[in-house]
Amino acid sequence: MSVWTRRLALAAAFIIAALVAGPASAQTKLKWAHVYEISEPYHTQALWAADEIKKRTNGKYEIQVFPASQLGNENQINEGLGLGTVDLIYTGINFVATTYKPLGITGAPFILRDFDHWKAYRDSKLFADLAKGYDDKSKHKIVALTYYGQRHVTANKMIMKPEDMKGMKLRVPPAPLFLMFTKSVGASATPIAFSEVYLALQQGLVDGQENPLPTIMAKKFYEVQSHIILTGHIMESLLTVVGNHVWGKLTPDERKVFAEVLKQAASRASDAIEASTVTSDVGLFNIFMHYLDQPKPSTDSPGGKASIDNGRALFNSVGCAVCHTPSMTTQASRLTAGLSNTIANLFSDLEIHHMGVRLADNVSQGGAGGDQFRTSPLWGLGQRIFFLHDGRTTDLLKAIEAHGSRGSESSHVEENFDLLTPSQRQDLLNFLRSL
Ligand code: HEC
Questions:
Q1: Ligand 1: which atom is nearest the Cα of residue 428?
Q2: Is 372 in the pocket of ligand 1 (CB under 6 A)?
Q3: Is 225 helix (H, G, I), strand (E, B) or coil?
Q4: Residues 134-191 pLDDT 10s
Q5: Burial class for 131, CB neighbours closer than 10 Å (0-12, 13-18, 19+)
Q6: How far is the centre of ligand 1, averaged over its atoms, from the C-alpha of 357 (Å)?
Q7: Sorting pLDDT into bands at 50, 70 and 90, what band is 402?
Q8: Whose CA is nearest to atom 22 of ligand 1?
Q9: What is the reported pTM?
Q10: Which of 94, 274, 288, 414 would suit a FRET pair with 78, their CA atoms being 20 to 30 Å apart?
Q11: Whose C-alpha lies nearest to ligand 1, atom 41?
């Protein structure tokens, strides 16, 4: 198409759109309510969608977005949708599942593997069928699914195994599957509205809660908890639901605009959430470590103290510590005196390195290229308490070997590692495992 034919086509489309729209129709104001913070992608993408819908309906629909429980907690906005006092909402799977149970299936622990698995579910006929089941029953309309992240447990103690949660008062969303999994580990489930969780933790009404890291960050739960345990037990989603009183009045064309734009917003928010869990790890780590108790490296297992001490010395002398800096001094913390200006175990320098082909997985961070990485903090490696590593560490030897790939800055350090005697190598591994 030449520039001119394209312009003509555009002009024609414009005229047709104007004819279809007819005389300027009255403006309709809609309310989109949710319980998330204005800094979160759910909100920023909702604002984008509101703008886009206004544009694409020639100003007919003006959507105002009300964040942070301004129009009520999640129960209340769900009720509001029925009463017609709110028009669109984001809501968790579990709320929708109170109306149509089968939709709740992804709220069960360890059902979805990872983000790709989640996307496959979002785009599946299964999800479309389940959403329709809800639509038929409630008459409201599910238009999109947004990724909410993996849920992790926070507490004031270390949790290494399910039994460690016995007797713990855990705040969970008031939904059957959450109550079930809490019960299955012997904890007592304490349902508390999302907006009241911080206070409940601070006042000791509950011992812990579980949410994705960006939420823990946004809601500052790390200020009132000492541990974050990367359980990743649930891949959580939000639904965008349009109230029956609105959906029922939209023309087929308007429905198309709403569905397209809201799906696109959901997809953008999902990618942003997924990207933030990859790229902000180090940023989060930097902040969290001012508040959280450090994992205590083991001194006697495995291999025993002598072997671990020797491994620690080798870690320095071989050159690993050039990148995986063992410690840093925290900044002043106004909340946790004990962690103010203190030396914290770190095992990362938080800098970006060229890692060569074998460690490259093309996840770029900030201005970094696909073959560049920040040093993985090895903090709490063996204890899986914190930090988010990318899973390579199931085989420590392989992870170390991968440092020696073509183009990697750490090749010579890897060569040093290869020159160690087998028992020295074992000492170094024992040291890593003690972290
Ligand atoms: C030139 C910098 C550099 C040096 C030297 C270095 N590393 Fe690394 N290391 C990195 C980077 C960067 C990563 C992260 C790669 C990634 O995220 O894929 C990493 C990752 C690791 C991991 C995997 C961590 C995880 O959670 O997946 C281990 C284990 C590790 N290094 C151990 C060592 C040991 C042991 C040595 C010394 C023999 C060493 N490193 C030397 C930069 C370095």
A1: 35
A2: no
A3: coil
A4: 999 999 999 999 998 888 889 988 787 888 999 999 999 877 888 888 999 999 998 8
A5: buried
A6: 14
A7: confident
A8: 399
A9: 0.61
A10: 274
A11: 320
